Each structure stands twice: as C-alpha cells, then as structure tokens.
Amino acid sequence: MQKKIKINYDLCRGCRRCEIACSWRQEGSVQLKRAKIKIKVKDQGATELPIFEQQCKIRPCTKETPRCVTACNFGALEFIEGGINND
After folding, report:
1. What DSSP assignment string belongs to 1-49?
2. Which of 8, 45, 49, 77 is least crowded, fewest Cβ atoms below 10 Å from its Cβ?
3. How many domains does the chain have?
C-alpha cells in the first residue's frame, strides 16, 4: 500500500512550518502562495487547519517522508500507510 499523509487536526497549532517547508521543496524559496499545503483559518481565527491540494491527496511529492511532515514540531502530520483525512 502506498504511504500518504495523515492529518491530526487536534495537534495543529497553525505555525505554518509545513507551508514554508513545502514551498521550499517545490519552489526552492519561500513562496507560501505556491505551497501545496495551506493553513486555513476557521471560526474567526479560533481554529487553523492544514489542508492539502488535490495532488497531495492523490500522490505525495516523495516516497520518503515529505518535508511538510518533518517540519511539523507538533506531530499534526504523519506519513503512514493509507490516505489523507482531509474530510
């Protein structure tokens, strides 16, 4: 089974380290608008949730642990067997 990224929304702190790491991996520089993961603000700023673009749901950028996952200091992202839980 292919490994994919799992999100634990309860552990996300909205620090945006995953966005920075993804942008750097994709673009070679920090361009948050071009990152494939975005932190979406909900509930008037009370909740911040990581959301992946469709291509990351289908196929992560690498077979090794993606940089967005390793950049997360809070354990909100994991690279595991299975699918992204972006529902």
Report:
1. --EEEEE-GGG-----HHHHHHHHHHHSS--GGG-SEEEEEEGGGTEEE
2. 45
3. 1
Hey, what amino acid is at 60? Answer: P
Q: Which amino acid is at 8?
A: N
Instruction: Please state the length of the chain.
Output: 87
Q: In this structure, is residue 41 part of a structural domain?
A: yes
Distance of CA 53 to the CA centre of its chain: 9
Residue 86 lies in a domain: no
In a domain, 22, yes or no: yes
Which portions of the chain are predicted below pLDDT 50? 87
**Six-digit token string for 86:** 């972006």
Predicted TM-score (pTM) of this structure: 0.77
